[in-house]
From TrEMBL:
PROSITE patterns: CLAUDIN. The gene is Cldn20. It comes from the Eukaryota. This is Claudin. Belongs to the claudin family. InterPro entries: Claudin (IPR006187), Claudin_CS (IPR017974), PMP22/EMP/MP20/Claudin (IPR004031).
Amino acid sequence: MASASLQFFAFILALFGGFGDIAATLLPNWKVNADVGSNIITAITQMQGLWMDCTWYSTGMFSCTLKYSILSLPVYIQAARTTMVLSCILSAFGICITTVGMKCTRLGGDMDSKNNACFAGGICFILAGIFGLVPTCWYTREIISNFLDQTIPESSKHEPGGAVYTGFISAGFLLIAGVIFCSSCFKRQQGAWIYPPKQHHFPSTEQESNAGYSLKDYV
């Protein structure tokens, strides 16, 4: 019962991590630049994401521009696009697989098949967490290096936005969920290896018949 509740807790973490991954991939505020003019009417906030750049004016107006050209983008943005999409796909696969393999569901067949499904789902969650953690770390490193560069003007410097923090938290949730699923299946398999089922050996009827014939030969 304890392992079933632990798997359910890991599944909830994986759901939050998967939805957070999708939100972080689509949000336009990976890095934010607040440019405040002399008048509060001219104050604007510029946000840049993986797929679009948005500008939010103090008057309430909001405009976005899609990034159509792929080759003109920096390498870290192209890598972030690819890895974040892979992270979303792997987390979706992991949710589907672990739904079949969890002990609290009636899907998946026998216990061995459910354990294998949970282990495969845990591997998907771990890979999704890694694919989500790498681009957020790389993106944050680029923001910090540009912010500390003295040759870049203050108006062109940015700070990490909410999408970066959402990506970090989602990757952590997916990693924790994957470790829980894999460890729960591994403990069960390890117990089966340490305490193997007892096998009862019964004498075959063929040996008994042979023994009977040999006794008749001596009479």
